[in-house]
Specification:
Blueprint lengths: L9 H4 L9 E4 L14 E5 L2 E6 L2 E4 L10 H21 L2 H18 L6 H14 L2 H18 L2 H17 L3 H15 L8 H14 L3 H12 L10 H14 L3 H16 L3 H18 L2 H17 L3 H13 L1
Helix pairs in contact: 2-3, 2-4, 3-4, 4-5, 4-6, 5-6, 6-7, 6-8, 7-8, 8-9, 8-10, 9-10, 10-11, 10-12, 11-12, 12-13, 13-14
């Protein structure tokens, strides 16, 4: 995800905390929500629910709740971060917010300011999904202020990227562009394996808002090729943006193929990917002149966004449905 977790920061190392290799965390330490279907993998073995997420294994055991030693708090915080990303990928902004807030609370208990960055970014993303624009503007400003105070390059770049997304949504395109330029420069100072993924989403959004359709396609295609996209919580949004850019650039056939790829890879059991894919397919059919197919898909998208309680996405799909 945006501003994703890296190695344990210096303020944790100073406290003697380490997280090396795969970690097993008792889910009693992280509260409810582990029963939801995750983005990546989930299976049951020996009556334990196992959630697999990069270097983190979460198991629900029938035993007493975990203690509250600093190391256990750190592990629980990281577990909440993983579960937050799973909820993000599914479009469940309420569960997303719940885990992000729990992660932030634990970061404050541990006393490491750099641990606040990831849950703060997630809370802003939850506001965006929920259409809470005033809160998104406020929270993204606070996250950026924290990043400038701590002055860790990856943290700074993530905060700038999140702020750019919010500013694009609220129509402050000039400010969004300034933040993205600084984010790109800041990522260049750090060790980021693929810079197309962290800044790709807001760059495509901004290009589309500026009417730069061909540029948006180039940016979105680069993001879609990023090695980490398929396993990222941004996967549904990334492919949906590529399809939208293709429609805007006059390639509805390409957009239709992208939409069907999104539905095939992410739509099964994922209501957010399904709604985004249906919208993308509807826009492609509308551009191709297939009015009936466009209406069917955009109606399905609107119903999906209504179920997910995403008012902005719902309103946009309804407008597009009416225009089809």
């Amino acid at each position: 995800g945006l501003g994703g977790e890296a190695d344990p920061p210096s303020d944790l190392a100073a406290g003697g905390y380490r997280l090396d290799g795969p970690t097993i965390v008792d889910s009693d330490a992280i509260g409810d929500g582990i029963g939801r279907k995750p983005v990546l993998d989930c299976h049951v073995e020996a009556r334990q629910l196992v959630v697999v997420y990069p270097d983190l294994h979460l198991r629900r055991r029938n035993r007493e709740p975990a203690g509250h030693r600093p190391g256990e708090l750190l592990l629980a915080q990281r577990a909440h971060n993983a579960l937050a990303l799973m909820a993000h990928g599914q479009g469940d902004h309420r569960l997303f917010r719940q885990h992000a807030q729990s992660s932030l609370d634990l970061a404050r208990r541990v006393g490491a300011p750099t641990l606040e960055r990831f849950p703060r970014f997630n809370l802003v993303n939850a506001d965006v999904l929920a259409g809470e624009w005033a809160e998104a503007v406020r929270a993204s400003s606070e996250a950026l202020a924290l990043a400038r105070r701590v002055h860790v390059p990856r943290l700074m770049a993530g905060a700038l990227t999140i702020r750019a997304i919010v500013m694009t949504y609220v129509g402050e395109l000039a400010e969004a562009g300034v933040h993205l330029s600084e984010a790109r420069a800041t990522y260049g100072k750090g060790n980021v394996a693929d810079r197309n993924l962290p800044t790709g989403l807001p760059e495509v959004m901004l290009a589309l808002e500026r009417g730069e359709a061909a540029h948006a396609v180039r940016l979105a295609a680069a993001m879609a090729r990023a090695p980490g996209l398929l396993s990222s919580s941004l996967f549904p949004q990334g492919l949906a943006l590529l399809a939208e850019a293709q429609v805007a650039a006059g390639d509805p056939a390409g957009a239709l193929a992208t939409a069907r790829d999104l539905l095939a890879q992410g739509g099964a059991g994922n209501p957010f990917a399904d709604a985004l894919g249906a919208r993308a397919e509807g826009l492609a059919h509308a551009a191709l002149g297939n009015t009936e197919a466009a209406g069917v898909n955009l109606a399905r998208a609107a119903e999906g966004f209504k179920t997910l309680d995403m008012p902005f996405e719902l309103a946009r799909a309804r407008v597009e449905w009416a225009a089809a």
